[in-house]
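Entry for adenosine-5'-triphosphate complex. Fields follow.
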Amino acid sequence: MKFKVPIFDVKKLNFIVRGQTILQDISFEIFEGEYIAIIGPNGGGKTTLIRMLLGLEQPTSGEIRIFGKKLKEFKEWYKIGYVPQRATLVDENFPATVEDIVKMGRIAKRGILAGISREDKEMVEDAMIKMDILNLRDKMVGTLSGGQRQRVMIARALASCPKILILDEPNTGVDMVSQQRFYTLLAKLNKEEKITILFITHDIGVIADDIGRLFTINQKATICNDPKKMLSCEEVSDLYGIDAHALHHHKHEH
Ligand SMILES: Nc1ncnc2c1ncn2[C@@H]1O[C@H](COP(=O)(O)OP(=O)(O)OP(=O)(O)O)[C@@H](O)[C@H]1O
């Protein structure tokens, strides 16, 4: 059998700031084709972990390899599509159309001086088709709804043809219908386009059906290969320090 190099290989990560342990002894691998959700309480270290995977934050100790390379030696960042937290909260007068924003994803791949080639145009168009925003291409991004902006930001990440999409709470400010549509699109990208997906969410109920693995992060990580089993009320209560039974009932009242 051919040996597969993981996209991310994380070993014994620790992050301590001013004597406070933010992340402790985190190890995992992420392989191509996976669809992984990260959940955990506010301040549990989820965003910090993602920022470390992207080289934006240095761990106190431990090692991260991307596509087999040490993080410092890794140069092909276009292979990693990232939509940060609150990426959709743009000013309503922001002077760019949907197409301009998606094009920025190509510039990230080829450099600002390279100009826009025919291939770039095709990739931009393709990303807009995949995220179902072609009809919005000439609209100013600031005039769009939260759900539409969310799809624009993901199309921008897709335009560089990434191997993995990393999304940090992409549903902030997005209504329920758009969220549902969004999860359907994500699942499609994973299944049909074979794009690996890693995302942070608080929507544990909504995602349970599709995802392959679930990481829970609360200083330490629990890696769960059977998300449905993990999402028992007891374990969610334990992770969040709240009564998940109460939440569950509350959800069904509406
Ligand atoms: N560079 C840093 N310096 C000081 N504290 C930091 C630094 N990076 C992260 N932290 C702290 O680490 C903790 C974890 O933050 P993080 O944003 O990763 O949590 P989170 O799980 O993503 O939370 P949320 O769900 O609210 O987004 C917070 O208390 C944060 O203030």
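NOTE: The radius of gyration is 19 Å.
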